[in-house]
Amino acid sequence: MKAHYKTFVVTACTLLILGFGLLYSTRKTLNVSAAASGGITGTIKLDGTPPHQKPIDMSKEPNCAKEHASNPVTTETVIVGPKGGLKWVVVYISEGLDAATASQVPPAKPTWDQKGCQYIPHVMALDVNQHFEVSNSDPHSHNIHPLPKPNGANHEWNRSQPPGTPPFDQVWAGEEIAIPVKCNIHPWMHGYMAVVKGPTAVTDDNGSYTISNLPPGNYTVTAWQEQYGSQSQKVTVAAGKPATADFTYKAK
Amino acid sequence: MESHIGNVTGHAAAAKSDYRRYCAGCHGDYGDSNGENAVWLDPKPRDFTIATFKCRSTLTGTLPTDEDIFNTIARGLTNSNMPVWSTFTKQQRADLVAYIKIFSPRWEKEKAGDTIKIPAEPPVTMESISHGKALFTKLECWKCHGSHGEGDGPSAATLTDSKDQPIRPYNFAAGKGDSRFKCGDTNQDVYKIFMTGLDGTPMPSFADVIQPNDAWDLVHFLRTLQVNRHSKENEVLSAAHGVIPPYVDRNPPPAAAPPADNKPPGGAN
Predict the structure, then answer these.
(1) pTM (2 decimals)?
(2) Confidence of residue B79 (pLDDT cuts 50, 70, 90)
(3) B151 in contact with A, Cβ within 8 Å
(4) Which residues of A touch B106 (CB under 8 A)?
(5) What residues have CB less than 8 Å from B43, skipping those under 6 apart?
(6) Are B172 and B149 in contact (CB under 8 A)?
(7) Which residues of chain A make contact with B202, given a CB cutoff of 8 A?
């Protein structure tokens, strides 16, 4: 009887220790994943009167002229929302990324579409080696002609994409902010692909952005705008609540 | 730096004096296309420091083969100031190929791209020409080259090369009985031009969008746009009194074919 009692106590203690151990380790794992979900959020504004965006004459491509007849398209060099928010700004981490976060390539495969003789999106942020698809939603041909700077890791190419052809897959081999893309058939078509390591974001209609999946730490955040160039600031990201980094560009 | 063309190996060091004497005047001592004659030239001499080449047998965005550059030197580039350098020996040309590679670091990091496969050329027939014409319309070659290939399409006026210099689309109708393309004068060369595209210019690659046999049909039609050229294609066309009949697809894709009472394949005449 006594021996049985002893065995019971020992077993119970072992189970208890194991149980606490398990609980502790689970908590630890949870802590780690919570830490990884830190981030930076903010708004990018334009101070001053935005430069006039010229309407685009698409009469040489009747399909597109017709598509935009009621709502003419303008250039997209500086697009400002009702509260002064600047659209199409690329925000990325220029310093402070740890090797693991920097080398992670997002599994998402964004699409670079040609629709109504415009690039949708006008600006796209990509990771190095992140696959993206080029598609043509228009009932006519486009040629996609990205022009990376010479002698870098990325090289100029130029491919035709007639209507009805399936999307094709591409990657960029190195960081570059930003690669201009043009269509020679429709000279008004311009866009940019920003290729950077680590989490990135592009501002929306209100000039807002959110960079997520950032471990706590000290970072330099950089914003890039096609007309006004780059600006940076230091940001400390803590676990849980996203840090804030707002930027203001002066209108020129 | 070396080049390999067949069994000839070129050495950059051996080409130094030839380059200085024959090439640097336009291409520049540093291969940057800023030679003393360059300001007077249109189109501009090739800038070897960016390693982007028009005449390739390789996919768009990749380096050409040594042989591609070797052939360009011998052939010269029609409609430009680049003369025919057939006066050089094969060894001299191979050495020059090696020499121009020293101007861009790309040649140390990369190999030549994959070459496009060219199947045997089918016979020139009116059906082939007619299909080629349909492709010329469908692929919108006319947007730049114009419906008669005269280089006067709706997008022609605004074209620029990758250095923002104005550039004209090829005028097929210009030239005499021996009218040539920059990248060669055989039918295989024409095939390569539109399949690989001419990097550094608005001419894109069609390698993903044209099936190999369709590409030959397009070659045959393009030859008829060279109205003054003596060619098998123009003979076939004049035998038909210069009329290209509309193309009838004998093998429509299954999805597009009407389900019932369609004509059997090959039976429509």
Answers:
(1) 0.85
(2) confident
(3) no
(4) 151, 155
(5) B80, B161, B165, B167
(6) yes
(7) 143, 145, 158, 184-185
In angstroms, what separates the C-alpha of A158 from chain B's closest C-alpha? 5
Task: State the Cα–Cα distance between residues B241 and B235, nearest whole angstrom.
Answer: 10
B2-109: CATH class: mainly alpha
| Amino acid type, B118 | I
The residue in chain A having the minimum alpha-carbon distance to the alpha carbon of residue B159 is A184
Q: For the ranges A54-63, A222-231, B111-120, B174-183, which has the lowest average pLDDT?
A: B174-183
Q: Which pLDDT belongs to residue A13?
A: 46
User: Across the interface, do B106 and A161 touch by the CB < 8 Å criterion?
Assistant: no
Q: Is B204 on the interface with A (CB under 8 A)?
A: yes
Domain boundaries, chain A: 1-36, 38-250
If you measure CA to CA, which chain B residue comes closest to A139? B138
Residues of chain B in contact with residue A135, where contact means CB-CB under 8 angstroms, are none
Q: Are A88 and A122 in contact (CB under 8 A)?
A: yes
- Token reading at B174: 């210009």
pLDDT computed for residue A8 by the predictor: 57
> What's the CATH superfamily of B126-239?
Cytochrome c-like domain (1.10.760.10)
Which pair of structure tokens corresponds to residue B36? 């003393």
B178 pLDDT band, cuts 50/70/90, is confident
Q: B105 and A145: CB-CB below 8 Å?
A: no
**pLDDT per residue as tens digits for the range B187-225:** 999 999 999 999 999 999 999 999 999 999 999 999 999
Pick the residue of A136, A184, A186, A189 with the most B CBs within 10 A to test the interface with B by mutation.
A184
- Partner A contacted by B208 (CB < 8 A): yes
**What residue segments make up the domains of chain B, in order of their start?**
2-109, 126-239
Mean pLDDT of B5-23: 96
Cβ–Cβ below 8 Å for B209 and A60: no
Q: How far is B86 from chain A (nearest CA, A)?
A: 31
CATH fold of A38-250: Immunoglobulin-like (2.60.40)
Residue pLDDT, tens place only, A198-220: 999 999 999 999 999 899 999 99
What pLDDT does residue A225 have?
97
Contacts of B159 (CB under 8 A, 6+ apart): A184, A187, B144, B166, B167, B168, B169, B202
Distance, CA of A245 to CA of B144 (rounded, Å): 47
pLDDT classification of A144: cutoffs 50, 70, 90: very high
- For B153, the closest chain A residue by CA position comes to A185
In this prediction, what percent of chain B has a pLDDT beyond 70?
A: 93
Whole-angstrom distance between the N-terminal and C-terminal Cα of chain B?
Answer: 59
